[in-house]
Predict the structure of Phosphoribulokinase.
Amino acid sequence: MTDRPIILGIVGDSAAGKTTLTKGIAQFLGPENVTVICTDDYHRYDRKQRAELGITALHPDCNYLDIMQQHLSQLRTGQPILKPIYNHKTGTFDPPEYIKPNKFVVAEGLLGYSTRGTRGAYDVKVYLAPPEDLRIQWKIKRDTQKRGYSEEQVRAEIVKREPDSEAYIRPQRQWADLVVSFYPSTEVIDGSNGHLNVRLVLRPNIPHPDLTQVVSTDAVHSDSAIRLGLDRDMGKPVDVLEIDGHATSDQVTKLERFICSDIPNLIDACNRDIHSELGTVTGTTGETLRSYPLALTQLLIAYHMLKATNVH
Ligand SMILES: Nc1ncnc2c1ncn2[C@@H]1O[C@H](COP(=O)(O)OP(=O)(O)OP(=O)(O)O)[C@@H](O)[C@H]1O
Ligand SMILES: O=C(CO)[C@H](O)[C@H](O)COP(=O)(O)O
């Protein structure tokens, strides 16, 4: 059993779903055990300076990646940090805050895997890769509703950022242990976020649960709502688990029980009657939607965090 904090990285472009995914993982692990930091706090310039310099927040030069790496290393050894705070409402920096790591630390942000040093700080690395049109839809909704931008401003910013997304954000996918892509089913016509499917790329860097015991890998069952197969991702062989948004409660429960049975700490956490927030997302009109694919993704990541506590 390790006595140092276990560090999870969640990396992806702006509005790729990092905060949404993190919320449920913390529920599985017990919110009181989890410290969440957002690496946007390591921006080097405030919003006005970025505009003057013509640099985007996605460029490595626009971030103190060295200090971020130092802080991740300190958190990994259980030491406290004095973390800067970037305020998304004002576009400026607030006074720094004192952070003492809990048993688990989730570091979510844009450039978490961009240097060898930062990559070495994590026990589990997740990359979020929704299709670009879905991410843009999410970003417009979030930035207009919560960050005070107009739709035109968000669209213009996305265009300005695209070269940096391509050069610095998307290549980080290669370093992830799990690549998570929520995507709409071709059959869904209401555009409801609650029924998105998920495609999980499982790289052999970390030991995944042997899902072949509960999920069919047989091509005959390729129309099943939960599927496991082999593929290549960025040229390397990977396992791929797909869960459809219309998977039934019975199908989901079977997979959930199998993952939980391996880790006693997860048995209670799997109880959806106790953890009502698992797999929930806010819909376009502010309503709460429940997503089995999201809940299972959060469970699988929590599984890896708990496994890591025994490995070290
Ligand atoms: N799995 C999901 N299913 C449905 N909707 C989602 C999902 N993930 C994210 N969203 C939608 O996308 C919006 C942006 O997600 P979120 O805030 O989690 O992104 P983020 O990556 O943390 O963004 P940023 O880094 O820019 O702060 C959310 O408000 C939510 O509406
Ligand atoms: O991509 C982002 C991650 O959340 C933000 O847009 C980035 O942090 C810059 O902030 P702002 O939009 O407040 O200028």
In short: The mean pLDDT is 91. The chain has one domain: 6-311.
